[in-house]
Amino acid sequence: MSKLRTALAATAALGLAALAAAPAQAAAQPAFLAASQMPPSSTPWTATQVFTGVPENGGALCAPYKIPAQNTRYREFSTELDTNGVQITTVARTEADAVKLVDTLRKALAGCGSLLERQNPGLRAVSAAHGKLAVEEGAWVYSLDTADPQVGTTDIHLFAVGRDGRTVTYVRWGQMGDLKDAPLAAFRTTAKTAVNKLW
């Protein structure tokens, strides 16, 4: 009888250990960039907390409503000089779904300039691809250079889309100016860091 009690106690202990571990495993989430990991700026970056879902207006410049809100979180970044950014990360149901989402985002970013020009007569917008980064399952960098002659403003945005298994992350950096003003090399480092930090 004592052996049976010992066996039952051991089984119960294992069950409790499994229950204790389950919430920890369920709570595991992809990690996000810190403010200090954004490209260097003349004023410090600040970062919001990590929110659930996608930002307003579909979440992603050049890829609105492409990233599902389910299993998605985001963090926004800003400086005192109107330089801003966002990281949106989603965990797809399967790796095949993640591959499909990356392809969708890449096509949206590559075609963003021409789409914006069609939607906004008078706006000049040029999208460009800046290559693939060797990190996990890969990350791809793009830019969007826009000029609005009527308002007299120019803006430059840099984007990255990367994947680690089922997890996809989108990173955007933006400020007033042109592509020549953008920290492209530093943004590549930021993009690699974002993908490496996911898990």
Short description:
This protein has 199 residues and is α+β, with helices and mostly antiparallel strands.
What is the quaternary state of this protein?
single chain
- Structural class by SSE content: alpha+beta
Order of SSEs: HEEEEHHEEEEH
Radius of gyration: 21 Å
User: Mean of the pLDDT scores?
Assistant: 88
Largest β sheet strand count, sense and barrel closure: 8 strands, antiparallel
Residue fraction in strands:
25-35%
Distance between the termini: 47 Å
DSSP, total strands:
8
Globular, elongated, flat, extended or rod-shaped: what is the shape? Answer: globular
Percentage of residues assigned to helices:
25-40%
Please provide a written account of the structure.
With 199 residues, the chain is an alpha+beta fold. The chain is built from 4 helices and 8 strands, in the order αββββααββββα. Strands 1, 2, 3, 4, 5, 6, 7 and 8 form an 8-stranded antiparallel sheet that branches. β7 and β8 form a beta hairpin. The longest helix has 26 residues, at 2-27.
Task: Annotate the secondary structure layout.
Layout: H1 2-27, E1 46-47, E2 51-52, E3 72-78, E4 84-91, H2 95-110, H3 112-119, E5 124-133, E6 139-148, E7 153-164, E8 167-176, H4 184-197
Antiparallel strand pairs: 1-3, 2-3, 3-4, 4-8, 5-6, 6-7, 7-8
